[in-house]
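Justification of computing resources. Each target in the renewal requires a structure prediction run like the one illustrated here; the chain below, 339 residues long, is used simply to show the kind of job we budget for.
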Amino acid sequence: MLPLPAGTTDALVADAMVDIATLRAALPHCLARTDLDQFGAKYEGKVRDNYTNGDKRFIVVTDRISAFDRVLGTVPFKGQVLNRLAAWWFDKTRNVAPNHMIRLADPNVLECVECTPILVEMVVRAYATGTTSTSLWTHYERGVRVFCGHKLPEGLKKHQRLAGAILTPTTKAPKGEHDVSGSRDEILATGKVTAADFDEAAALAMKLFAAGEGLCAERGLLLVDTKYEFGRTKGGELVVIDEIHTPDSSRFWKAATYEERFRSGQDPDPLDKDFVRRWYLSQGYRGDGDAPAMPDDVRVGAAERYVAAYEQITGESFEPDTEPPLARMKRNLGLGTKP
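Resulting structure tokens:
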């Protein structure tokens, strides 16, 4: 077995119900590509393949995993976990902010209202942490004390909770390019988003984060940081799009071990894709050049953590659908099969 990334423990995934044998058996069958032209016009993102058909968008959540703005490989059942968890959160937060979800059409597919995206990602952070080029801690460690317009105090320690959650928006970069963090004024200066869109989205993002923090606290988790994306419907309503509070878009730590590990200078226990990021950092990779191949042990370890996050947040057991996904998706969406 490969060593786990520094600061992680096997106890993290003790509650996950999907056994290791099931995860390992799924390794050769991960959903890496879709090629479902019957869904509609395709746009391929890092993880999600989007198919637009009239006033609807079918979002197919693959098993691809990205970090450092790169697609690094696949993780068993990751797409099903993300899709089902996003649908769960969309349902739970409709009273906080409207969203684009119509229904969970398939374990890997979300049927949504077609929207025009707002070209900014609203990132909300409650802790001084992170490993990527856009993270607060990366900048703070280099001596930066004003981050995205927020003045940071001297003496912060890695993983320390901030005095309050802050908004640190980033540009929405195309696949393969890096997002860039900035203040409100800096984002507006790009000319890609209006002040009205920015301010409305920012207000909804802060409300959503507060709601997410509260629910996660009830489940024994810390919602450390997250990103939200927004779009406008044809009727002009601003709604949440893409995903919300998943292990891809958010950082989760186990609350029970946070204080002790913080005091001792250890990394918190993660239930998100930081597990994968940490492995790559241990290999000396930070996003430049060719990425090392992800070993199966890391892929399975990531899958365990995705499942554990799903189960701890929702209180439900995760039962993976092991049917070949392409035929299943076509059947569930009534598309038939290609001749």
